[in-house]
Amino acid sequence: MARLLVLGGTEIANRFVAAVREAHPELEVILSLAGRTRDPRLPDCETRSGGFGGVEGLSAYLKAEGITALVDATHPYAAQISANAAAAAKAASAPCLHLVRPEWVAGPDDVWHVAESNEAAARHLEVLSAAEPRKVFLSIGRQELAPYKALGNCSFVVRSVEPPEEGDLSSGAELILARGPFSEADEIAFLKDRRIDLIVSKNSGGTATYGKIAAARALGLPVVMVERPALPGGDVAGTVETAISWLSGIS
């Protein structure tokens, strides 16, 4: 039986697995998770949790388990995992697809300050808060908070699914543990209630967290948008439907 390994942990990965099971019931699907999120939302399929041990470990797994194809459907900012997936698939002579939802695009009423990294985003905040203190909504997850700790003229509201490591939060920061989706109306109320002046966001794409971007537009708030890292070479799909077509072409 043909076997498909999906590197997941995202909403689009779950939708892809469900679509594969319907379109290709003959395929055995294995969903791999990093294991960093407690009680993740999972589709009905075989799962594994934890890392592989870099490129060599993943390549060895692909060969040992007889994996027919690899689909990298991890978060758009999981650059190292995507690079490892591409290299391991090449080493194992297995086709590899990167399934990543399209980026958000700024409209005429959006006020975005685009930054190539969190370090660059922190420098943007330093400039934007030079004249007066700013209250900032950090919506970048829990693992990349360090660049913002030294900004003395900013106070922070941090929202993430899991709590950050002790010491990663800035002194006095408000931590909110929540999982999307978040509607535009709820985000408007959230931003008003906490008197947010600025938002820092990753360009994650999709609909689950787009509410904050729409809310910022409605309230006229600036957004410091952290750009995605470049994907490694290989096939790329922006939708589940395109990924299913790719899978049909190699099976």
Automatic annotation (TrEMBL):
Gene Ontology biological process terms, A to Z: cobalamin biosynthetic process
Keywords: Cobalamin biosynthesis, Oxidoreductase
Top EC group: oxidoreductase
InterPro entries in alphabetical order: Precorrin-6x_reduct
Protein EC: 1.3.1.106
Domain of life: Bacteria
Highest classification ranks of the organism: Bacteria, Pseudomonadati, Pseudomonadota, Alphaproteobacteria, Rhodospirillales
Name of this chain's protein: Cobalt-precorrin-6A reductase
Record-level Gene Ontology MF annotations: precorrin-6A reductase activity
Presence of the UniProt keyword Cell division in the record: no
Keyword Oxidoreductase: yes
Pathway: Cofactor biosynthesis; adenosylcobalamin biosynthesis
